[in-house]
Amino acid sequence: AVRVVTALARFFRISLSRGKSIITVRDELEHVRNYLMIQHMRYKNKFTYTVEAEDEVLDLASLKLVLQPLVENAIEHGLKGKGRGMISISAERERDSICILVNDNGTGIPEPELADMKRKLEAETVYLQEKSIGVLNVNARLKRKYGGRYGIEVISREGAGTTVIIRLPEDGEGKDNENITGR
Fold first, then answer.
1. How far is CA 60 from the centre of its chain?
2. Buried (b) or exposed (e) across 109-119, using 16+ Cβ within 10 A?
3. Are 105 and 85 in contact (CB under 8 A)?
4. CA–CA dist 125, 83 (Å, integer)
5. Residue 83 vs residue 166, higher pLDDT
6. Between the chain's N and C termini, which has fewer beta carbons within 10 Å?
7. Burial class, 129, CB count within 10 angstroms (exposed 0-12 / middle 13-18 / buried 19+)
8. 3-state secondary structure of 175
9. pLDDT tens-place string over residues 125-169
10. What element of type H or E holds 89?
């Protein structure tokens, strides 16, 4: 109980972040780590998880609350009915971008659904009352903040799991970027 309450308190602290929309990659990963700990206990160890990052990306800027909806989808859709699942999150530098990958070994997305999702991700529209609304809205937030070059890419194969790639600018610059120094 103490571990869950502590994780929940940390989860909400980062969620609030003094009203800031930009936090460090370190804080975004900590936020999702707390969410995973809570869900891991809720689902009675039905999945394992890892969260890793290259040291050089930890203090770079990230739009807040981009990972949790994607991890929630992995748990609720990808691992449902799977038995024991695995979720891994990693953050790394790729050229002039930060790439955060959310992988699961779940059921994967059927090809027609995946094609529809990719079409909607490219459209950069916020969708209401949709399945996978979290993925679509996170993508729309990223594209509005950072431009069309950044956002979400989904790679999936039915029966083999899903990888969601989040691309952020390395410099953290956006159209209305908040400075994260001096926290």
1. 16
2. beeeebeebbe
3. yes
4. 34
5. 166
6. N
7. exposed
8. coil
9. 665 555 556 899 899 999 999 998 999 999 999 989 999 999 999
10. strand 85-94
